[in-house]
Amino acid sequence: MKKRFRIPAGRAASEIWVAWNLRWPALGVNFGGQEYYLTAEGKAAAILETILLNHPFVDGNKRTGYTLMLLTLNKHGLDLQVHDDEQYDFVVSVASGKLPFEEIVTWIRNAVGPK
Question: How many CB atoms lie within 10 A of CB 41?
């Protein structure tokens, strides 16, 4: 018998879309007991790239992706140590698709320090 997908009452369609299309490993999911992204920078890059490139919301994707990236870093005792203008340029570059994933991780790794 084929399983049917039912949207829970009170959940917006965009929330369901996000849940089905995010890089689940960025949210702490592991496969076979092994985490997909081993570093805080990798997890932060994955969630940022996923939100910015998949564009799940009508508005606010860059703000949401940026905030989730910061929360992920903060959870691991890290924070960005670069000027706001650099952060803005970075987020816009990611959103435009100009940076491959490895470069996103490298930028974050070079920009973070202890919280």
Answer: 23
CATH number of the domain within which 48 lies: 1.20.120.1870
- Residuewise pLDDT in 10s, the chain (115 residues): 444 444 444 545 455 445 544 544 455 555 566 667 778 999 999 999 999 998 888 899 999 999 999 999 999 999 999 999 999 999 999 999 999 999 999 999 999 999 8
For residue 82, is it within any domain?
yes
Separation of alpha carbons 109 and 73, rounded Å = 10
Its domain, for residue 54, covers 40-114
Query: Structurally, how many domains does the chain consist of?
Result: 1
